[in-house]
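Project standup — Tuesday

K.O.: blocked on the structure for the chain from last sprint. Re-posting the sequence here as requested.
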Amino acid sequence: MTETGTETAGGERLRRWRMVLGGGEGDGTARVLGGSDAAMDAALAALYGGGDGKGQGERTAGLGGSAPRVARWLGDIRTYFPGPVVQVMQRDAIERLGLSALLLEPEMLEAVEPDVHLVGTLLSLNKAMPDTTKETARAVVRRVVEQLEERLAARTRATLTGALDRSARISRPRHRDVDWDRTIRANLKNYLPEHRTVVPERLVGHGRTARAVRKEVVLCIDQSGSMAASVVHASVFGAVLASMRSIATRLVVFDTAVADLTEQLDDPVDVLFGTQLGGGTDINRALAYCQSRITRPADTVVVLISDLYEGGIRDEMLKRVAAMKAAGVEFVALLALSDEGAPAYDREHAAALAALGAPAFACTPDLFPEVMAAALEKRPLPVP
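H.V.: unblocked you, prediction finished:
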C-alpha cells in the first residue's frame, strides 16, 4: 500500500472510532467531524447521549419531548443511515426515551420507517389512540403487512400445496390421478432394456385436487406484550392459510380472555387491530376453546404460539395437549414466530410439552412453511 493509501486508511479508522466513541477528550482520536459526519454524529448523540447537543466536545444531545425535534431527527436518520439501522434506532428511541406517546400524532407516524416492531408498539397503543391518528396508524400497519405478504405468501402457498398433495396421495389411483414422475422413479428397477420401457408394478397417485377442505388449522396466539412480533407474523400467515380452499383456518388470540378472530382473516390488518397486546396469560383457557372447535382430530393441526408463561392451570393445560394428541391432532408449540433470535420462555413448561411429544421451539417466518408442511404430512417437525 502506498504512503498516501496508508494515511487514507488510517484516517478512515480514526473517523470510524470517533463516530463510535462519541467525542470528548478521552476518546483518543482528536478527530474533528464536519459535513455529513457531524450530522450523523448529532443524530446518534440525540438518541444515545443526553442534553442539548451543542458543540462536538461530547455526545450530549437529546430529543426531549418536542414533536418537531423528533420529526426532524426521524428525517435525519433516514437520510444518513440504511433502512435496517433506521429501524433499530427508532426502536431504541421508543424504548430508551419513552417516545410512544408521540406516535399518537399523525405527523409523527408519517415520518417513521415502518417495521414489525413499530406495528407492535402501535397495537399496544391502539386503545389510547385518538380517531385522528387511527387511519394513519392503519396505513402504517398495512404497509408492513403487505411487505410481509409479498415476502412470505407465495412460498407458503407452494410449500403447503405440495404437502397437501403428498398427504392425499393414493395407492390405487385412476389413470388421470397417476403421478407419472413418481411412478416411473418408483419402478425403475422394472426397466426392460430390450423394450426400452418401464413396467409399472406399482402406481403412485397424488390424488385429485379437491375443492373440499382436506385439513383444518387452528392458530392459537398469545397476545401478551412480549409476543408482539409473533402476533404480527401469525396474523399474516393466518390470512395466507385462510386463502387456501383446502385448509380451514381458525385464528384465536388470548391473554386471560379468548378472542376468535376467524371472521376477520380476509384482512390481516383487521386481525391485528382486533388484538390487545399486554395483560396476563391463560393458555389452558385458550386451548380449551380451541379443543371445543375441533371436529376432525385426525385432520387437524393446532399451532400454539406462546412463550409458555402460564397464568392459568398448568396441569390442565398439559392434559389438554395430551388429549388432543391422543385423538390424532398434530400439535405444534412455537415459542416465537419472529426473526428476533432466541426468546425468553418458561423452560419447565417447554420440557413438559416435549415429554408429551410436542417439542417447543422458536421459529422464524421463513421456516414456518416447512414446519406447517411437516405437520400437515404428519412427519417429524424440522426443529432448528
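K.O.: great, moving the ticket to review. The mean pLDDT is 83. The first helix runs from residue 3 to 21.
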